[in-house]
Amino acid sequence: MFWKFDLNTTSHVDKLLDKEDVTLHELMDEDDILQECKAQNRKLLDFLCQQRCMEELVTLITHEPPVDMDEKVRFKYPNTACELLTSDVPQINDKLGGDETLLNILYDFLDHEPPLNPLLASFFSKTIGNLIARKTEQVITFLRKKEKFISLVLKHIDTSAMMDLLLRLISCVEPAALRHDVLNWLNEAKIIQRLVELIHSSQDEDRQSNASQTLCDIIRLSRDQSTQLQDMPEPDPLLTALESQECVEQLLKNMFDGEQTENCIVNGTQVLLTLLETRRSGVEGLMDSYTQGFERSYTVNSSILHGIEPRLKDFHQLLLCPPKKSAILTTIGVLEEPLGNARLHGSRLIAALLHTNTPSINQELCRLSTMDLLLDLFFKYTWNNFLHFQVELSIAAILSHSVHEGKAPTAEPESKEEVLNGNAAPESLEPAQPPENLMVTHLFQKCCLVQRILDAWEANDKIQAEGGMRRGNMGHLTRIANAVVHNMEKGPMQTQISDFIKELPEDCRGRWESFVEETLMETNRRNTVDLVSTHHLHSSSEDEDIESAFPNELSLQQAFSEYQIQQMTANFVDQFGFNDEEFADQDDNINAPFDRIAEINFNIDADDDSPNASLFEACCNERIQQFDDNEEEEDIWEEKEITYATQVKSRTRFGASQTSESSSKSDLENGDHDGSVDSEEETEQQ
């Protein structure tokens, strides 16, 4: 019956190819054309690689389909054509990459006026990207002959597919020597400087955003490849250009000189934040779960810091007077003056700069009182956790860094190379007496950090006592207070921090000590959730103890219900009725009934002082007879007194009438002076 079916069916594509007048569109209508192409169907590949067919395929992905077509099928053929051209079949790659006529048809897509069709642009970028990876030398040689290539790509940078094309040129070219030639070619075309120019208030938002993202990706890709390829003869020219002081200064000039817009400030700050990255996790994307804990470390070039330092006053002014934003409606009411994305990115940059621990930058921030301003914003915008996190990072950086400001920075910082974290040379530090940390002094004396923590906590307690909501920054305020306590006890600046605490006014110092020993300790206790036990589950955001979500009675009932369900599922079929073994000699299966009892295992969460605890224990002692596993085994054939009452109980337990075995079993149940008898006596005494 099986053999009557013909399993060796011929593909319909082959049948179409047997026709003399078959067209490309007829083949593309077949659902299995891609499968046949990737399977390298010889007849199909010979047809597709004909000059007219290849030209038609390239034209489909670079020209708009007719407007009068049904929208559902309008881009069907361009999509199929792109999949065929990028199917990674050597014969197609060789034909497309080696024919300059086809490459010119493909390249002409860039001559279209903006904006490009985003779908066709993605087809174009995917096809060119595949050729860059597979036919690298031919395609790079072709593109380098096109003088307007870089200009045209930047002209269409508002389309994300063009950004992808640039990144493919940087990351997908092999071998290393050819890649370095490509990087030099892009650098000679001033690709970095031209991308920086696009981050300007005069450009539209899409162009600025894509230019910023391209620069960020170039930084990360270049640093990753420099780390992996330790034997590179020369540094990456694009990364060198990006990290130069001139480039950073030009970017900041575009951001702050002239009209200031939030979009320009945010996009420019994102590039600066990427330049200031010192650590980054491994491969992003689907492999994240396999690369947890893997990080790469990078060095922050001193030229970046030198370029940013003169503009710190502009970021401080940004925090004071951001670009105007209209009021917004939030879940807690109307926010008349929103914080805004520009100020948030400004706070992110300050936190990143503080982590570099550069003496000259720390000094300038102290002069501007930028940390004092950030704390003002922290307590003003009590519901903006993004801002709270950045302020917390800034304070943690100040408290945890060892002292490097022992010697004032030189008048000409350009003449001396800074270390990554801003440390001065070891010989500049006085070994006898550790110098004072300028930022720590500023934080405790000028910013009055301790007093602000205490005042904010008391204000929140008052609000809650009046029935109001707990403030949204209390969680981060708790972490900041813990950071102060931790670094005062065993941090690198513990001596200086302890001295500042001792120098507080007597009433303030008493409030702080009481806060640390009582309020903060109790808050930390409540915020520590036991993930193993569900006893006293509570929210870490609450200020009073919360009882368990379920009463003990419901917990007991729920546990027993789960046990019943367990018995009715996994082993129900095996345990229902009688087993054949129960009718066999009991000396082979004497423990069978007790094995089932041993499987009963569920946890009951109850306090020792719970009224149900004693009741539950009494029920257990009454209904479940105890067995001592350490008890010596007794000879079941030994003659003993037969108790008929227990014989009935035994018959009930085994489910069948027994004779001598029942009498022996009854003695085991009675414990023979050592087992459950003692237990019963102890229960009666209690």
UniProtKB/TrEMBL annotation:
Residues 648-663 have a biased composition (Polar residues). It comes from the Eukaryota. GO terms for cellular component: cytosol; nucleus. Residues 677-686 have a biased composition (Acidic residues). Signal peptide: none annotated. One of its GO terms (molecular function) is protein phosphatase regulator activity. Pfam families: SAPS (PF04499). Residues 408-419, 664-676 have a biased composition (Basic and acidic residues). Residues 408-431, 648-686 are annotated as: Disordered. Belongs to the SAPS family. This is Serine/threonine-protein phosphatase 6 regulatory subunit 2. The lineage of its organism: Eukaryota, Metazoa, Chordata, Craniata, Vertebrata.
